[in-house]
Amino acid sequence: MKLNELKPAEGAVKNRKRVGRGPGSGTGKTSGAGEKGQKSRRGYSSKRGFEGGQMPLHRRLPKRGFTNVHAPVTKEIGLALISNNFRDGETVSLETLRERKLVNSTIEKIVVLASGELLLKVTVVADRITKGAREAITAKGGTIQELTPKPIQ
């Protein structure tokens, strides 16, 4: 096989549709756009979500609640996750969790929950630690360092 013998697969290449080229072409006169109406006009483009003047679905559905886009992105970490991914005497913080790819870079705060069982003595540095998690960490001889919230400037 040579480069000059290469051809596209059968049916892969079609001739483009030449519209408005007389009645014999099948797409003459109105160029396949039909008679009259908005869709037959030059420059027509449908808007996203447009339903022909009917109230669009995104406006018919009820709106509820509020999303605070300025709130820090928080991740909840269980004691079981700490036990499975850390060793005795290590520090559990946002940086170490990122290094081990347990949280992604968008996470800004960490909350430690008492889900699962803690099997080792660790130092936990977090923004918030629940009462149950606090008791479990101190029972194993670990230390807690709770980060204070930063003042708004």
Characterization of the model:
- Strands 1-3-5 form a three-stranded parallel beta sheet.
- The mean pLDDT is 92.
- It has a domain at 74-146: Ribosomal Protein L15, Chain: K, domain 2, CATH 3.100.10.10.
- It has helices at residues 57-60, 79-85, 94-99, 131-139; strands at 74-78, 91-92, 109-113, 123-126, 128-129, 143-146.
- By secondary structure, it is an alpha/beta fold.
- It contains four helices and six strands; from the N terminus they run H-E-H-E-H-E-E-E-H-E.
- The protein is elongated and about 90 Å long.
Within the largest sheet, what's the order of strands? 1-3-5
The percent of residues in helical segments reads: 10-25%
Percentage of residues in strands: 5-15%
**The CATH topology of the domain at 74-146:** Ribosomal Protein L15, Chain: K, domain 2
Order of helices and strands: HEHEHEEEHE
Average predicted local confidence, pLDDT:
92
Total strand segments:
6
Can you summarize the main beta sheet?
A: 3 strands, parallel
Distance between the termini: 71 Å
The number of helices is 4
What are the segments in which pLDDT stays under 50 over at least 5 consecutive residues?
none
CATH class of the domain at 74-146: Alpha Beta
- Specify the overall morphology: elongated
Radius of gyration: 32 Å
Helix-and-strand structural type: alpha/beta
